[in-house]
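User: Show me an example of a complex going from sequences to structure tokens.

Assistant: Sure. Here are the input components:
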Amino acid sequence: TRPLGVAAIGYAFMGQAHSNAWRTVANHFDVPNFEQKVLVGRDAVAVAAAAKKYGWSESATDWREVIARDDIDIVDICAPGWLHAEIATAALAAGKHVLVEKPLANSLAESETMVAAAKAARAAGVRSMVGFNYRRIPALALAAKLIAEGELGSIRQVRASYLQDWLADSESPMTWRLRKETAGSGALSDIASHAIDQVQYLLGDTVTEVSGKLHTFTTERPGPDGPEPVTVDDAAWATLSMASGAMASVDVSRVALGQKNALRVEVYGTTGSITFNLENPNELYFLNGTEPIEVQGFRRILVTEPEHPYISGWWPQGHVLGWEHSFTHQIRDFLLNISTGTDPSPSFEEGYGVQQVLAAIETSSAAGGSTVAIPQIITISKD
Amino acid sequence: TRPLGVAAIGYAFMGQAHSNAWRTVANHFDVPNFEQKVLVGRDAVAVAAAAKKYGWSESATDWREVIARDDIDIVDICAPGWLHAEIATAALAAGKHVLVEKPLANSLAESETMVAAAKAARAAGVRSMVGFNYRRIPALALAAKLIAEGELGSIRQVRASYLQDWLADSESPMTWRLRKETAGSGALSDIASHAIDQVQYLLGDTVTEVSGKLHTFTTERPGPDGPEPVTVDDAAWATLSMASGAMASVDVSRVALGQKNALRVEVYGTTGSITFNLENPNELYFLNGTEPIEVQGFRRILVTEPEHPYISGWWPQGHVLGWEHSFTHQIRDFLLNISTGTDPSPSFEEGYGVQQVLAAIETSSAAGGSTVAIPQIITISKD
Amino acid sequence: TRPLGVAAIGYAFMGQAHSNAWRTVANHFDVPNFEQKVLVGRDAVAVAAAAKKYGWSESATDWREVIARDDIDIVDICAPGWLHAEIATAALAAGKHVLVEKPLANSLAESETMVAAAKAARAAGVRSMVGFNYRRIPALALAAKLIAEGELGSIRQVRASYLQDWLADSESPMTWRLRKETAGSGALSDIASHAIDQVQYLLGDTVTEVSGKLHTFTTERPGPDGPEPVTVDDAAWATLSMASGAMASVDVSRVALGQKNALRVEVYGTTGSITFNLENPNELYFLNGTEPIEVQGFRRILVTEPEHPYISGWWPQGHVLGWEHSFTHQIRDFLLNISTGTDPSPSFEEGYGVQQVLAAIETSSAAGGSTVAIPQIITISKD
Amino acid sequence: TRPLGVAAIGYAFMGQAHSNAWRTVANHFDVPNFEQKVLVGRDAVAVAAAAKKYGWSESATDWREVIARDDIDIVDICAPGWLHAEIATAALAAGKHVLVEKPLANSLAESETMVAAAKAARAAGVRSMVGFNYRRIPALALAAKLIAEGELGSIRQVRASYLQDWLADSESPMTWRLRKETAGSGALSDIASHAIDQVQYLLGDTVTEVSGKLHTFTTERPGPDGPEPVTVDDAAWATLSMASGAMASVDVSRVALGQKNALRVEVYGTTGSITFNLENPNELYFLNGTEPIEVQGFRRILVTEPEHPYISGWWPQGHVLGWEHSFTHQIRDFLLNISTGTDPSPSFEEGYGVQQVLAAIETSSAAGGSTVAIPQIITISKD
């Protein structure tokens, strides 16, 4: 059979990260044959240059034409969130396997359309996945494994936060990420989405109720034609009740000066605990509460051993990986799902679950923090 | 003039910590002369043994008799919270300077009585102080100084948490600390009170609104006569709006397995940030955001230099202090307030301010997280 | 002009690391056009598979034929150390630019041959470089820059160590790395070479005298035909006197259980200090001793800002790099040296300088630690 | 029986630290009754003030008179090293139990006299101890226990260093500590002595051979009458061969800018490892190499549990101790030795063992690093 043909849409930050993963995945993992066929963008000159640089054979400006091509089997959507629903549903309808960047979409309504499209496509053997790439960081994959194996006992509480500081400067200019109509929300959808996905992923659990608060510290920023109002949040806080009875807290900020990319997760169970910080992504801290108290303590596991998730494709122990490798692992798993005919995780339904929590936090915030229940998630039917 | 006569009430954990501070303060600091006169407790034999061990000349079982004594000038109240109001108001009325352990009391009503008593006594030159001892940890005192001097610019947000694990074992037995009638609340009053005091102290700011949630993970624990219901919280979460416009979050837990005494504070301003963890109390992490980005980073200040608060009384640089020394510094400052005729801080009014926030969090939690405003604090009139 | 043709020799650990760098460098940096032409190895089947996996157009088994090809401009030598001299001198004689893995060779005599070959080739515009890739870790490149700019004042002492544990298990089997005839020495040439190169690189200084000690903890290991003697060191210690008057210590081990890849460097100057650990390669710790003592401390610089060396080719701040990226940067710089007609650093002469120190440590160890002077390094004549 | 009468000689830094320990030990531990009788110093006014401040009943200026007093049972020698031998031998001859600050003395000859005196006194039931107080830091006591119990297997190597920076400023003035005739040596006897004692203590092993180097970075410093030569070392490096076959390295510095009191110890065994840093004295890092590799890592043990050495006398878990508490524990153990009629450790013989290593390092340094054997230690005869 011919190699799988891949098209990617978008060549900004996420486009570069995904391209890098496509470029390198086969050098490290056994994956089905594929070809980096075409990179799609709106600016013909810029996308042609990006395609050349990132290793794509061609470039194009019309994604509709691309997804109609017979030689394209996979569509990797790295475009901004407001385009996700339209592209993804069209691509799935065209029978293309779809990987879409997180968050799934900018609104619940769009997300629902995408879930329906994914469900229909799934019946036809077409795969879909949402790009919560941090699940593929070896340390977090190990955390999930340890929790699933019961090493932490019953989980009581989770503390998840994601702190950045790229908006700490009040004079930092206006962008599409700071307008509600293009971004949906601010720190909430951009980074709280990652934190919430981790909570649900690590615990294998779902949020049932939330209380939340959004805040915008800098309400106006310089635009090309003078000051513009910032219409999304800079920071958000929420408490989450889980179906299992566990409690979680999530807080995120884009103005936490000095914190660069600090997704921190702490999970406390009845017999063990785990902590993680994305600024040191090769480290997982694990406490085994069943050991003699004399020698108990959080141990720093340098997650670079062949026994650890994904590491066998890389280097000997102690030779650490970087942020980008989570994308490489994501592509590897997506390709294996396609070749083995299995459904990827996180599915669009899981992405929709995160959207529901984000929406509930917004609703709660607007209501002064009152508790908001999460509607039951659409059942994933795999038959 | 004769030395100040000191009486302490209570000889459990806090009584030992305060006694240790009285025992050592004059070895390290120039303070007015005083004598450890009498230690008061309910069990005559036990308190006599404790008095001997902790360096008190006498012991007694009736605190009313002790505060009536002419040779007692200072009453240090280390008894449980439900006794604070009665003892403190009586001692102040008797003209004794009063140091009372935190939190100020178990209820707002009691706190108000105490504030009124402190105000009346203040007019007569009688001093009162509530024992939020962590203000006297050199690293936190340095943090407050740096913030007050503007090194962080305008504060945007604070993240404060206090995690312990002494209730992580579900079979850990029932105590008075787990009953609402004796403890008032659980983690909230015991440890969130410290976190909230730090937020207000470090920022020189007050909380105006809260949204909060309390939770009890283990609802029943073994008592002497079989299982008993736990009627206080194991954990609490809150978001706090500050008068300045800053935002703060506070979360506390007694079941965070592996966290032993982790009061963590992170303060993010427009030009600098600070982080602290009580498990490493000699360290303050400070980021100066005005430096060239090439060399910016959180620096670990080992707060053991003679230039640092309280250190000149101790050891050369790098010879670290422990948890207990915060009490020594507290006594030192209290004694200096008495000798110089100045009012201690934190005052009962400040302690009452913390109580208001605690009460509002409980109210908000009972109302599903709805925002609750803090009533205006009683004005501190010093004339 | 046609793209530069590249051949790589060797496809084991280092061959994979170099291949990965060739595969990705152009996706992130502006470099002259080149093509991954041919991968060379002894086993035809295995090298063909590796070539396919790592992105090389062809494979071959005879390196002599490959370096004779007109379409090959660059030879990247990833073969074991005992082959370096023969291949490198032949390739340079054939007018090919040569990158050779560290250490330069297994013996001083071989190194001298290589230096002579590099010198001759340099006169003809042919470039040569030895692969001390850690110079290209952004944090260490930043360290070198800060030191060169005088941020540390005059350097007094350096502490460099490199701790691993892959030989901690006494039953770990015999390999070519544990035989003197194939490996030259053990931890000394493998990892102390990195540490020594860092000392000389960071300080811009040279070692003049050494006292050293080698030790083999496990003197026999299982081979295919029964136990075999280990004829190289497991660990080494040395003190180094520098031309500037600075002192350095180096110690390395392959049995430091729990240390996975801990190249640690500490540099102490009269006005500043720096520390680094390769297990957290994105962090540089820097203390500025000219600041007020009240706020002095080692700051953690997360070396991921666009202002930092090499970072502009990668991701936004806080999105960390891994171990492998040092190779990508090495290839980038090597390619730029070729295109701009400048001499790469570290040169073969610099590699030879490291060999001299290694040899002197061996000599000193054999003489019970007596001080051994380093002969004056061969002058680098660039005209 | 009457309480033990204690005299202390010296009221500078060490005098204050010892006084503080005498002042507090009985508040925390069950020890025999004792009284802080008299503090001895040369300056009558200053020592009187110090005695009052530190809790001694009297002061005196003639130590000979004091050790002759019948009401004195214990002599605690905190005077500088050149006085140790004279005072200690006299006090032991007078039948007083003696605690002497480390190092034992300034010369081997003096040390030998002291060992002989201690041996003679021991036969008469008179106890003697040298004050390597860091053995009584709970974390290091725990480390010793774990090693003794075999948790690390067979020890292969130790890395011990002690870094300070109080001489980093070249203009820091001349003191008695920088003259060979008063101090014996510099960093070597002051801080390498601690490191060497730890190596021998933790491993229960003795040094057999050394290779060492001493260095003085700043050879002249301002004295009251102009520049004076510094005649002791600022820094030292040594490799130590142990009787067991283990290897150790020790390096110390007083000019490691930014390191305040960093006694670091790393012990690597066949089945486990330990690391420690005195700047965070409540933490012990322990790696259990027999666990599954998937979850192996150095764990941070916060050594504040009741199960940990010495902690039961102090606070609940997580309430950390400081540097000074090692002295409190030392006094506690010394008092218990006296009351139970057992010999303290470290004995004068153990102190002498450290002196032998220090002397050998000096000899080796003078001989350019050549290996120097340690003469067999004087046998400790306890009968």
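The lines above are the inputs; the final block is the predicted structure for all four components together. The two ends of chain B are 27 Å apart (CA to CA).
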